[in-house]
Design a protein that fits this description.
single chain; alpha+beta; Histidine-containing Protein, Chain: A; 2 domains; four-stranded mixed sheet; two-stranded antiparallel sheet; globular
Length: about 190
């Protein structure tokens, strides 16, 4: 799908729960963690966040190298793919997401069986193949933004803020809790 840029100093930071406790006798002294370990922990945290999306059929592998996360595998839909990209990009310290995910093809429509009295439908009568889902726009929240203001700017109607909220669930838990630097999905109407 491509390379996406994010604000690296925004998003969920690795916490003590993710980093684990240190064996240092001076708890006020910062622990030294290798860049390789930070990459591993960020990849694990992104994987945890993706699993919390509870998307049926996703097969995602995450690798992190510095401020770049790479996603490979498959997603069941364009919406799922976008949410997975946002899980990675909204991780503190991630500035780019290289999305190499493929969207699983929907199953081909099955033509009805012809009976003795019916003739098979002509090719032009067959149901058209479903068109791919339209991609959303990604928006980076600025200081002072609200979902209503973002909805007004993108849809011309502040009342459509719940469309944006629903498109970003479960990553957003409350429509009033967005933060500068956070990236959001703005789906087409």
């Amino acid at each position: 799908m491509g390379l996406f840029d994010f604000v690296s100093n925004a998003g969920e930071k690795l916490t003590e729960a993710v980093l684990g406790s240190t064996d240092s006798p001076d708890i006020n002294k910062p622990a030294e963690i290798s860049p390789e370990r930070i990459n591993e922990l960020r990849a694990q945290n992104i994987g945890r966040m993706v699993s919390e999306l509870d998307i049926d059929g996703e097969q995602v592998q995450v690798s992190v190298n510095g401020d770049k996360a790479t996603l490979t595998g498959t997603a069941p839909s364009q919406e799922a793919l976008e949410k997975i990209v946002l899980c990675a990009g909204n991780q503190h310290g991630i500035a780019q997401v290289d999305c190499q995910l493929a969207v699983d093809a929907p199953p081909a429509p099955v033509a009805p069986a012809a009976s003795d009295t019916d003739s098979a439908p002509a090719a032009s009568d067959a149901a058209p193949a479903p068109s791919p889902e339209a991609a959303s726009t990604f928006y980076t929240v600025k200081s002072g933004d609200t979902l209503s203001a973002i909805a007004k700017a993108h849809y011309g109607d502040a009342g459509k803020y719940m469309v944006i909220f629903k498109a970003n669930e479960p990553m957003l838990k409350d429509p009033d809790k967005i933060y500068p630097g956070q990236s959001l999905r703005i789906p087409p109407l």
